[in-house]
Amino acid sequence: MNIVFIGAGKLATHLAVELTKHSFNIQQVYSRTDSSAQELAKKVNSRATSDIKKVDTNADIYIFSVKDSALPSLIAEMPVNNGLWLHTAGSITSDIFKGHVDRYGVLYPFQTFSKDRQLNFREIPIFIEANNKNDLSLLENICLQISDKVYALPSEKRQYLHLTGVFACNFVNHMYAISQHILEKENIPFETLLPLIDETASKVHSLSPQEAQTGPAIRYDENVIQKHIDLIEDPDLKEIYSLISKNIHKTNKS
Amino acid sequence: MNIVFIGAGKLATHLAVELTKHSFNIQQVYSRTDSSAQELAKKVNSRATSDIKKVDTNADIYIFSVKDSALPSLIAEMPVNNGLWLHTAGSITSDIFKGHVDRYGVLYPFQTFSKDRQLNFREIPIFIEANNKNDLSLLENICLQISDKVYALPSEKRQYLHLTGVFACNFVNHMYAISQHILEKENIPFETLLPLIDETASKVHSLSPQEAQTGPAIRYDENVIQKHIDLIEDPDLKEIYSLISKNIHKTNKS
């Protein structure tokens, strides 16, 4: 099966490399930036282009993995063909393809992708969608070769999934970043925090997050909460601390 | 070495159980609630009391592990003796003991403790403090028997450490709780989120949190950010989403 990648970012790279391990052929890689297209093409033994109009029209699958804002114009400019067009975006409905191409859908791997991180793709949940039964079945079969966790999910629900990804990954990571910044100022190594970070993540495998909660906010220990707000210099962070503490308390009461 | 525990909560229980594994004797357990005192005493083959005035005066070490707000009155009411008095609170200075007893300090294990969670104590950083060199050395030796990571840290710095614990554990856990709530409404199992939660925690072992960041906030993708705020029903959560997104963007620019 021949696949074209539109985009050569972190998600595209992880996905393309994984697919080649399972004997899919990455026929071509497009990126707006020629060097990025070349870099991914080299990794997966493919050809590169930075001209969307020169994308091959004879591939089986086209995977768009680009910034949300770049997607509409790329779809409009790409030569029409008979392949199955897919995007990998959490918050864009599948019908962004409607009117441009007959066969389309979504392949959304629910994970955070960084350069040089090895990931076990078998563990990554992949949420799929297609505008006809045959293509949904085709897409499921493709995804099951790289992951054990493949689920059909309509666009309306996928957007909520994406939202939880922002809370449980991006915002969590920002809590780590805030902590690192505070520790650096006190000359305490960030490594000190890793056992706590790991246990916090590990706990919710066996307890619900609500059962797992500890600390001053859930006890609504106003003394500690006020001391902490006084320790924080940045007014925006004071506000974030205060709002999340109140929300923990409110959630626990209800 | 004979130890008395003042308090029988989650931290006290984990610590007392661990100390008994390393041949410390838990001589007595006090808790305001008789059944809690009994429960921990039974676990560590000790005696229980719910009368602070009946605490033994001949032990070597007294570990206060109670709510911050309960600490001052317990210290004032407990019979004075020649033991080393310690508390386990992140945000209370060691001199809360001053004037009540000659030998005092802090034993602060930097971890989140839940009932029925097995923890590897050797990995838990313990931050210690004492009002004289001999007791600091004694305390260090005690802690090194249960953990490989024992550090002397003054109260002023410990309060910042505690603050980062709130961000990196309690607030992180609340991000998980918010996510669970959203997923439940969409009938998507919370387990779906676990690979993302694990990878987010795992990443910061090898990348700094700032390098590890992904998602709409760091790209400042205002379309997705606005879509997500529209999806959230609770006005407090809308505000939390918006504030953290702005803060991620601000941190990234600076």
Automatic annotation (TrEMBL), chains A, B:
Pfam family, one: DUF2520
PANTHER family membership: CONSERVED HYPOTHETICAL ALANINE AND LEUCINE RICH PROTEIN (PTHR40459:SF1)
Parts of the chain that traverse the membrane: none
Source organism (scientific name): Dysgonomonas alginatilytica
Residue stretches making up the DUF2520 domain: 124-248
Protein name: Putative short-subunit dehydrogenase-like oxidoreductase (DUF2520 family)
Highest taxon above the source species: Bacteria
Annotated Pyrroline-5-carboxylate reductase catalytic N-terminal domain residues: 3-78
Stretches assigned to coiled coil: none
InterPro entries: 6-PGluconate_DH-like_C_sf, DUF2520, NAD(P)-bd_dom_sf, P5C_Rdtase_cat_N, TM1727-like_C_sf
